[in-house]
Design brief:
This protein has about 325 residues and is an alpha/beta fold. It folds into 2 domains: about 230 residues, Spore Coat Polysaccharide Biosynthesis Protein SpsA, Chain A (Alpha-Beta Complex); about 70 residues. It has 10 helices and 8 strands. The chain has an 8-stranded mixed sheet, sandwiched between helices. β1, α1 and β2 form a beta-alpha-beta unit. α5 packs parallel to α8 and α9 packs antiparallel against α10. The model has no long low-confidence stretch (mean pLDDT about 85).
C-alpha cells in the first residue's frame, strides 16, 4: 500500500444548488477511493444554504455511509465561509478541497497527495486547459491571477482553482473572510510553507449554472489589498496611518512657507492663492490620519486579544 494511503484525509466540498451533480460527484469520489485503496478518510459536504434539493440529496448520502459528514449552514454565506466551516470540522492530517460542480476531477486527488508527500505544505491545482467562457471567466481570471502574483509575491497561475491539497497543520489557524479562500497559498507562504502548483484537469459544467460572475474579480482584488495590509501593517497600523499623517504635516508646512514667501516677496496676498486652504487641508488630513492610526491600533489589539469568532453558523451536522 502506498504511503499516502495510510494518512488520514479529509475531503471538503462546498455545495450550493448542485442537486444534479451531487450523486455523480460522490460516485466519482468513491471510485477514486476504491481504486487507490484509501482506508483512512472522511468526506465533508457543506450545504451552503441551498434552496434546491441539494440538502436532502446530501442527507441520503450521509444515511448510507458514516464516512460522509454533511454540514448544513443556516443560510448562503458564500464559498469562503463554506470552506472555512468544512476545514474547521475536518479531522484529517491532509485536507483536500474541491468544487461540487464536477468541473474539478476527483481523479486528480492521488496526484495531489503524491506531490504533497514529497515535502510540500500546499499543492495548488492549475486549470491550464480551462473549460469556461473566455470573456466572462477566463480573461478576468488571468488578470486577477497576474495582479495577485505581483502584489503578493507568490507566483501561481490559478488562484481560483478550488482543487487544492493542504497539510492541516498549516491551514487550521488561517482565518478566512470575504473571498479569501483563494489566498490560502499566500498565507501559507508567508508562514514559511512550501507551495507547489500542479496542472489538473478541468471539465465543462454539465448541470446547473455557475455562481460566479465578472464582478467577483473586483471583490477578489479588494480582498487582496486587505490581506496585503494585514501582512504589512496588521500588528502596527499606526505605521501606515501615522506615516501618511506625517507626510500631510510636511506638505502643510511647505504650503505655509510658500504662502509666506508670496505674501512678503512675491507680491501676492493670502487670498490670491489657494495656499491657505492647502495649509489647512493638509494639516487636518494629517491630524485625522494620525487619529485613524490610533483607532486602528486599538481595533487590531482588540482583534488579536479577543476570542476567535467564526464567520458562519452551523444549523445541523450529520455523522
Amino acid at each position: 500500500m502506498q504511503k499516502e494511503n495510510n494518512i488520514s484525509i479529509s475531503l471538503v466540498i462546498p455545495i450550493y444548488n448542485e442537486n444534479q451533480n451531487i450523486n455523480l460527484l460522490n460516485d466519482k469520489i468513491f471510485e477514486v477511493i476504491k481504486y487507490n485503496n484509501f482506508t483512512n478518510y472522511e468526506i465533508l459536504y457543506i450545504n451552503d444554504g441551498s434552496d434546491d434539493d441539494s440538502g436532502s440529496e446530501l442527507n441520503k448520502l450521509a444515511e448510507k455511509n458514516e464516512r460522509i459528514k454533511v454540514i448544513h449552514l443556516q443560510r448562503n454565506y458564500g464559498q469562503t465561509a463554506a470552506l472555512s466551516a468544512g476545514i474547521e470540522e475536518a479531522i484529517g492530517e491532509i485536507i483536500i478541497t474541491l468544487d461540487g460542480d464536477l468541473q474539478n476531477d476527483p481523479a486528480d486527488i492521488p496526484k495531489l497527495l503524491k506531490e504533497l508527500n514529497s515535502g510540500f505544505d500546499v499543492i495548488s491545482g492549475w486549470r491550464k486547459k480551462r473549460r469556461d467562457k473566455m470573456f466572462t471567466r477566463i480573461i478576468p481570471s488571468k488578470i486577477a491571477n497576474w495582479l495577485i502574483s505581483m502584489i503578493s509575491g507568490v507566483r501561481l497561475h490559478d488562484y481560483g482553482c478550488t482543487l487544492k491539497a493542504y497539510r492541516a497543520s498549516i491551514i487550521k489557524d488561517i482565518g478566512l473572510y470575504g473571498e479569501m479562500h483563494r489566498f490560502i497559498p499566500i498565507f501559507a507562504s508567508w508562514q514559511g510553507g512550501k507551495i507547489k502548483e500542479l496542472e489538473v484537469k478541468h471539465h465543462p459544467r454539465k448541470f446547473g449554472q455557475t455562481k460566479y460572475g465578472i464582478n467577483r474579480t473586483l471583490r477578489v482584488i479588494s480582498d487582496l489589498i486587505l490581506i496585503k495590509f494585514m501582512d504589512k501593517y496588521s500588528m502596527n497600523p499606526i505605521h501606515l496611518f501615522g506615516g501618511f499623517g506625517i507626510l500631510n504635516f510636511f506638505l502643510s508646512i511647505i504650503a505655509f512657507l510658500f504662502m509666506i514667501y508670496f505674501k512678503y516677496w512675491g507680491g501676492k496676498s493670502f487670498v490670491e492663492t489657494p495656499l491657505p486652504q492647502l495649509v489647512v487641508l493638509f494639516f487636518l488630513v494629517g491630524i485625522l490620519s494620525v487619529f485613524m492610526g490610533f483607532i486602528a491600533e486599538i481595533l487590531m489589539r482588540t482583534y488579536y486579544e479577543s476570542q476567535n469568532k467564526k464567520i458562519y453558523q452551523i444549523r445541523k451536522i450529520i455523522n
